[in-house]
Structures are given as structure tokens and as C-alpha cells.
Design a protein that fits this description.
Layout: E1 13-14, E2 17-21, E3 25-32, E4 37-40, E5 47-51, E6 55-59, E7 65-67, E8 72-75, E9 81-85, E10 91-98, H1 106-115, E11 125-129, E12 133-140, E13 151-152, E14 157-161, E15 165-171, E16 176-183, E17 188-191, E18 204-209, E19 216-223
Parallel strand pairs: 1-4
Antiparallel strand pairs: 2-3, 3-10, 4-9, 5-8, 5-10, 6-7, 6-9, 11-12, 12-19, 13-18, 14-17, 14-19, 15-16, 15-18
């Protein structure tokens, strides 16, 4: 017999695109068109899922809900994060999977932060912190940033540009020309920071947005 039920085209489930991987970290970029499904049925590692842009989503077993730009979701190993884009524009998350246990205790991390010569606020806003990481939004308006206020890196870190951007680096003493970093959306950089970096001004720098007509946006994660 012929069924009278209308044909429903199955929605394609999107898988995040890998941007970077090393021994400690896997970073991927999930983008869903309106109505698309994505996420993971099971996470193998502790994972930070970090929203890019406002959106509307439906998590498995939950009603639709608004999600704000820069919202963070922590997912433990073995847990799912299945999501449907219920909005009218692209839904995007940068996903950070921590492949090994933290290398330092909370006390050890605190000593590194407290003993640095300059501030260890390495972004413009600390959004989330736990035993694995410190999670920073780093956003500068066009031409913005104060080269005379250096920050100090004492932990290994990575950042992802979530829009085209350019960052001009200044030495800890305010001298220009330390670096000129021009990046496209999705570019990733990783930095190994040695023990004792907090006593060395070479691991401190100031920054200024090198574009006068574009904001600079990067998502930065320090690993403990």
C-alpha cells in the first residue's frame, strides 16, 4: 500500500572541522546552518564549547533557548552535546578538547600568576575557569589597545581568531615592532611557555589592534 505520510528529507548532521591538534589540545570549529543538527553524541575528552555570535539552539531533550555570544559550555567525558540550530542565521561554536590531565595544581598555578612581573590578565574578559584552563575573550575595537599596559604569559596557551584581525605587539617596555600578526577567521596559534617565564619580560607584551576599521576578536585559552 502507498503511504499517505509526506516525505521528510533527513537533516544532515554536521561534524566540527578540526583547526588544530597537539598532544594536549584539539580545537575544532562547528558551524550549523538554520535547521541543521550537530555536536557530539559522546565526548572523549573534557571539552569547552564556546559560542561565537548570538543564536537560538535546542539541546537534546530541551526546548529551544537563546544563547549569547561568548557563552561557554563545559562538557565532561562521556557526556553528549547534541544541538539543533533553531535560529535564522549561522550557529557557531569553537570547541576545545583537553586531551590530558592538568599539568599543575591550583596552588602551583596561583603561584605562577602571583609571581609574574606584569598583570596575567591576558585577555579583555575572563569568561570561565576550572582545573583545566582559563578562558579569555580578547576583543579590541578598531585601533584599540594600550601598548603601555603589558600582560604576562606564564601558562601554555592557544588562541583562535573568530574574525579577520591584526594585532601589533609591543615589548614590555612599550617599544613597538615586537610582532605584526595578521590573521584570518579560524587561524590558530599555540605557545609553549617555560617555567620561570613570569620573571622574564620576554614573555610579556602589550598590543594594539592594527586595523582602524575592524574590531579584533580572538578566543584565548590558557592550559593549567
Amino acid at each position: 500500500p502507498t503511504s499517505s505520510r509526506p516525505h521528510v528529507r533527513p537533516r544532515r548532521v554536521m561534524v566540527a572541522i578540526k583547526l588544530f591538534e597537539n598532544a594536549r589540545l584539539l580545537i575544532s570549529d562547528l558551524r550549523l546552518a538554520p535547521g541543521q543538527l550537530g555536536g557530539a553524541g559522546r565526548h572523549d575528552f573534557p571539552t569547552l564549547r564556546w559560542q561565537v555570535g548570538d543564536g537560538m539552539h535546542r539541546l537534546e531533550g530541551a526546548p529551544p533557548a537563546a544563547v549569547k555570544d561568548k557563552a561557554t559550555f563545559w562538557v565532561e567525558p562521556g557526556q553528549p552535546f547534541r544541538v539543533e540550530n533553531c535560529g535564522e542565521s549561522e550557529y557557531r561554536q569553537i570547541c576545545w578538547e583537553f586531551k590530558c590531565a592538568p599539568q599543575r595544581s591550583e596552588d602551583a598555578v596561583r603561584k605562577l600568576l602571583d609571581n609574574a612581573k606584569f598583570t596575567t590578565d591576558v585577555g579583555t574578559e575572563l569568561l570561565f575557569e576550572n582545573a583545566y584552563c582559563r578562558v579569555w575573550d580578547f576583543c579590541l575595537p578598531p585601533g584599540g589597545g594600550d601598548p603601555n599596559v603589558p600582560h604576562h604569559h606564564v601558562l601554555d596557551y592557544a588562541f583562535v581568531y573568530v574574525a579577520k584581525g591584526r594585532l601589533l605587539g609591543y615589548s614590555a617596555d612599550g617599544q613597538p615592532g615586537l610582532f605584526d600578526s595578521t590573521n584570518e577567521d579560524g587561524d590558530v596559534s599555540w605557545f609553549d611557555i617555560p617555567e620561570g617565564a613570569g620573571a622574564d619580560p620576554a614573555y610579556a607584551h602589550g598590543g594594539r589592534n592594527g586595523y582602524d576599521d575592524l574590531p579584533m576578536r580572538e578566543y584565548l585559552v590558557e592550559l593549567k
